[in-house]
């Protein structure tokens, strides 16, 4: 039996590199040799046992690019050796959401690295329908980030921004830093709020018009100064802490839109529902992506969306647990960590 290395999370704060059977692609599936895999907050949540969709034991990882290694039966639109990006979904294809084309809401949605084996491994199984060609001017490491880029694109599109809107982005992690770029492309005026100055500096380079560090500045006061006391057109929450979630209703204008990309995992967070009703707010959720990968890859390939500046570290698979802990602790220049075998240096 052929085997491969995989980072298997077997319980709370336990990841081991194990030699496991190399999976065999079934009908409609493709075996992808993983070249790069981004680490994500949901990998940390899975590692800590906080993620509602992740159960142990599981091979984590879902932001990946690689090379087609083997085809399952019936797959005739891919060739072994092609460079690909994996949209990490398996869907049923027949439920009402799938039939309406909103496949991210499939009632049997399965995500790589969540309910099925992930891409923190030498190989991963993907659904042939959810593979995309890697643009040749993107590295495997950059292309792996089409996943968070697509998440951010999906959320921004749901906000229906207009040129000139003031958009406040709370949190400049991976998804926040990408939302800055998408909102700028839309012609919005963008304010980014984060406690890390190095992230704010780069956010400004990526197109943010205003950067605010809430440890020094009053965010609400800045928003009201910019809008003659009216409030932001749209507030995008990309932190997932109770206090930032609660702050959204005080930053947005009457009739404005709140996009909740982050979530705290707690069912009892206070959120100003009275303000939601009386200010006629639109509060939106977002789940992954739906038809967003091709657009994300096109914009990345054309240089409109930049991911290289947010890649802060590169580590080989053997050091994945160290990477997950770096991401968990944050701070000190940690932004996006990429797991790639060719990784020679820690610092990107
Ligand atoms: Zn992710
Ligand atoms: Zn379905």
Features:
single chain; 348 residues; alpha/beta; Rossmann fold; 2 domains; seven-stranded mixed beta sheet; globular; binds zinc ion
Architecture blueprint of SSEs:
Elements: E1 3-11, E2 14-21, E3 29-38, H1 41-48, E4 58-59, E5 63-71, E6 83-86, E7 89-90, H2 96-99, E8 110-111, E9 123-127, E10 131-133, H3 140-144, H4 146-159, E11 166-170, H5 174-185, E12 189-193, H6 197-205, E13 210-212, H7 219-226, E14 232-237, H8 242-251, E15 252-260, H9 273-278, E16 282-284, H10 293-301, E17 311-315, H11 320-329, E18 336-339
Parallel strand pairs: 11-12, 11-14, 12-13, 14-15, 15-16, 17-18
Antiparallel strand pairs: 1-2, 1-4, 3-5, 3-9, 3-18, 5-6, 6-10, 7-8
Helix pairs in contact: 1-11, 4-5, 4-10
The structure holds zinc ion (2 copies).
| Rg over CA atoms | 20 Å
Could you name the ranges where pLDDT drops below 50 across 5 or more consecutive residues?
Answer: none
Instruction: Quickly count the domains.
Output: 2
Q: Note the total helix count.
A: 11
CATH fold description of the largest domain = Quinone Oxidoreductase, Chain A, domain 1
The CATH superfamily of the largest domain is: Medium-chain alcohol dehydrogenases, catalytic domain
- In CATH, the architecture of the largest domain is Alpha-Beta Complex
Distance between the termini: 36 Å
Question: Strand-residue fraction?
Answer: 25-35%
Shape: globular
Largest sheet: 7 strands, mixed
SSE sequence, one letter per element? EEEHEEEEHEEEHHEHEHEHEHEHEHEHE
Structural class: alpha/beta
Strand segment tally: 18
Q: Quaternary arrangement of the chains shown?
A: single chain
Q: What is the top-level CATH class of the largest domain?
A: Alpha Beta
Overall mean pLDDT score? 95
Helix content class = 25-40%
Bound small molecules, deduplicated: zinc ion
């Amino acid at each position: 039996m052929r085997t491969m290395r995989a980072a298997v999370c077997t319980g709370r704060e336990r990841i081991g590199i194990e030699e496991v059977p190399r999976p065999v692609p079934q009908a409609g599936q493709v075996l992808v040799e993983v070249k790069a895999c981004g680490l994500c907050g949901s990998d940390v949540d899975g590692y800590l046992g906080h993620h509602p969709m992740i159960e142990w034991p599981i091979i984590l990882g879902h932001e990946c690019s690689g090379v087609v290694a083997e085809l399952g039966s019936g797959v005739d639109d891919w060739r072994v050796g092609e460079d690909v990006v994996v949209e990490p979904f398996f869907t049923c294809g027949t439920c009402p959401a799938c039939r309406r084309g909103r496949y991210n809401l499939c009632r049997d949605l399965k995500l790589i690295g969540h309910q099925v084996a992930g891409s923190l491994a030498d190989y991963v199984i993907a659904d042939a329908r959810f593979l995309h060609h890697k643009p040749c001017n993107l590295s495997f490491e950059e292309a792996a980030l089409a996943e968070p880029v697509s998440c951010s694109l999906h959320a921004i599109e749901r906000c229906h921004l207009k040129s000139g809107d003031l958009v406040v982005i709370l949190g400049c992690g991976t998804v926040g830093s990408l939302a800055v770029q998408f909102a700028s492309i839309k012609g919005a005026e963008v304010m980014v709020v984060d406690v890390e100055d190095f992230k704010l500096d780069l956010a400004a380079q990526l197109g943010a018009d205003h950067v605010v560090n809430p440890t020094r500045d009053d965010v609400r006061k800045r928003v009201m100064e910019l809008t003659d006391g009216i409030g932001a057109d749209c507030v995008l929450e990309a932190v997932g802490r109770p206090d930032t979630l609660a702050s959204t209703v005080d930053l947005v204008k009457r009739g404005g839109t709140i996009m909740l990309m982050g979530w705290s995992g707690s069912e009892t967070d206070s959120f100003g529902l009275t303000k939601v009703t009386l200010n006629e707010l639109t509060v939106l959720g977002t789940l992954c992506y739906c038809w967003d990968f091709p657009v994300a890859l096109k914009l990345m390939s054309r240089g409109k969306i930049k991911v290289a500046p947010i890649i802060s570290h590169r580590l080989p698979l053997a050091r994945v647990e160290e990477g997950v802990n770096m991401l968990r602790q944050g701070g000190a220049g940690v932004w996006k960590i990429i797991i790639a075998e060719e990784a020679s240096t820690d610092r990107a």
